[in-house]
Amino acid sequence: MIEKGKISLAQMNILIYPAILATSILSVPSITMAHAGHDMWFTPIWGALVGFLTVFIALGLNKLYPERTMIEASTAILGSVLGKIFGLFYMLYLPHLTGVIIRTYGEFIISNALPHTPMYAIMGTMVLVCAINVRSGLEVIARSGQIFVALFVILATFLLALLIGELHPAEFLPIGEKGLRPSIVGALAPAAWLTEFILIAFLLPFVHNRSKVVRKSIIAVLYVTLSMVVINVVCLLLMGDMTTSFAYPVMIAARYITIADFMQHLEAFVIAIWISGIFVKISVFLYVYSLTIAQWLGMKDYRPVVFPTAFLCTVFAYWIARGKSDISGIISASSNLYTLIALLILPSLLLAIGMMRQKISGQGKAAP
Amino acid sequence: MMAWIAGCRSCAAAWSNACLLRSAALALSFSLIAVLLAGCWDRTEINDLAIVLAAGIDSPGEGKDYLLSAQVFVPRQSSGGKAGGSSETTPGGVTVVKSATGSNLAEAMIRLQTKISRHVFWGHCETVVIGENAAKRGLRQYLDFLLRYAQFREHAYVYMSEPPAREILALLPPLERSSAEALREMGNLKLGAKVTILDLAKSIEGVGQSAVLSRLRILPPEQGRDKLATMPYMRGIALFRKDAYIRTVTEPISIGVLIMLNQLENYVFTVKLGDSKGFVAIKPLQIRTTMTPRIQKGVWSMHVQVETKGDIVLNTTDLALLAPDQVKAIERLWKEKMTGIIQASIDLAQKKLKTDFYGYAAAFRRHYPKQWNASRSRWESIYPDVETSLQVKVLIMRSGKSESPQGVPEDTIIRK
């Protein structure tokens, strides 16, 4: 097997948490509000249904082939030609997704902290550190993830707690102003983010204690959903209908903190949260992509491809967009459909075919 | 980055061969890292910054250029006392004001930079003062700029000034480091309406499409003092329809406006008793205004309930303030007084200015979303006819340190 390291179930879930939240924390409040209006705060709950579905698909694939990632399983299920085509899609899709993540990071840092620093320095340094992390193996990614996620959660909770005094609970109303439909349309964005739970299908083979995997994965989805709801609620109660007019509502919220005249200008904490989260997120995606390439090509080790992969993703980060407006286009509702196809629909087709094959071969064995 | 990787590889290859080659490769890779780390593109030393404490926006009139003023902190004079020769009559002088004109604020800001030798930094701008003429032209441009340009803080307090904003910023108050600091402290004390940039934008962009700001004037300096050695102070409330300034209200209507907005603190109501010569002053401890919208059979109505508790702080009547009847009588008069003030401010908004300053639209939207969405386009014609019922509940909690009136002989006090 390519990866010799083993991680625990808890470590995997800890990796998944920032892998989903790191980017959603900044853009989900305003994207969901654009579609769902005042009902945006509970859209992640609809999204969670898609999250559960994704988790069950990933677990289903793992049940069919416990020791294989989705890419390895695809050749076993679809046969080598179709399976390689399936894998090729992910070879092309993953750098695109990773590129978007890296670019989102670059855009955020440039517009909020370092306006004069060239993009290649911001993205390049981060990708370099992540690549070193990935080369060190899954165990290292998991352990560094544990540290950074702790930081991420503590700082985020701290910031949100400081805002309690500025919130206006009256903003909760009206609920369902235009019926339930807008909130379901708005849920497409959190749903697209929650489909990233399909990462489980790549990481599960390396988890050594898989006995409680169903229960623990559901809890992981709930944690992510809860975090999204809390962030949306804080933005809504602070900024009301204006939430959608800001590029990074959470940043505005952090800048708004003023307690006792000295607890202010805390936006640097948001950047710290963001960097610690995005480090884990880029590492996880880079790892999954390197693993995909290595397995698709039948290599014995994924490490040689990590740096080229990292470079390719950085280049993709330039290719995908010219500016912030292009990025918004990529993470808007229509392209969420693209994400949904790649991370939900194709894996579910794979699972369906796999299950049918198993049934047929099972019957075939039973007959004689 | 690729070169670095190559360096790393050659380093690995050289491991077993020559120690010299290895250290050369290491040195090369480290020097390549140095290339990457050399640029501190966003480094600005603090002594290269001109820290702006307050921004002022003025306009000489329609169609003319805007004037953007910045109150810049002068760090040299803030630390320690002056070398000598400082006299009581000259102000502290830790701030200077620089201004520049432009056809819009962004242009003015860039021109302002050309007049200052340091990098102008707006991140600590805690106060924004908008001159009356600039306010008449509409706040939209200013709000967009303040909420788009990355450095401004959304928590900065916004005021409207009767004199040009530049003059307010130029003041050097004896009590505070700067007039910006004075205005921020006044905002925290809630001496007027406490409105941040975010609040202002929410209120204008919200369904009510209106806003209120505290209005500033300059306190005349004491005789013999420098004319800048004085403070700005708040007098009156400036009312905005959509984003444009329409008029100012002063006491007592401004008090009613603040009560309706749940923002009144620091006020004393004086009640004059009919038959006696004296009066009683009551300081409200808290005032809570709740609005309950109702739509019944197509009739839109709003129930406004004001609950307040207060302490007596002055009593020049002969009443002992112990008998429940006496307290009841004072409460009744207080209630009448408050009802009058609040009703006048409601009438001003609904009948005279026909502008929803108090959030009626938001309340209807929250509680009757269906009816609201059906008739939001007609809101401007509905609003003046919304039946407002006002209920004021007052309670006198305590009578201060004294019970019976002071400074009068015991036998004149009316105990019942």
From TrEMBL, chain A:
Record keyword Transmembrane helix present: yes
Predominant cellular place of this UniProt entry's protein: membrane
Alphabetical keyword list: Germination, Membrane, Transmembrane, Transmembrane helix, Transport
Xref: InterPro entries: Spore_GerAB (IPR004761)
Domain of life per record: Bacteria
Membrane topology per record: Multi-pass membrane protein
Transmembrane segments: 12-34, 40-61, 73-93, 113-134, 146-164, 184-206, 218-239, 268-290, 302-321, 327-353
Any Pfam family matching the protein: Spore_permease
Family affiliation: Belongs to the amino acid-polyamine-organocation (APC) superfamily. Spore germination protein (SGP) (TC 2.A.3.9) family.
Protein name: Spore germination protein
Organism for this UniProt entry: Paenibacillus oenotherae
Lineage: Bacteria, Bacillati, Bacillota, Bacilli, Bacillales
UniProtKB/TrEMBL annotation, chain B:
Keywords: Germination, Lipoprotein, Membrane, Palmitate, Signal
This protein's record includes keyword Signal: yes
Pfam family, one: Spore_GerAC_N
Localization: Membrane
Location (main, coarse): membrane
Ranges in coiled-coil conformation: none
Alphabetical list of PANTHER family matching this protein: SPORE GERMINATION PROTEIN B3
Name this polypeptide is given: Ger(X)C family spore germination protein
Species for this entry: Paenibacillus oenotherae
High-level lineage: Bacteria, Bacillati, Bacillota, Bacilli, Bacillales
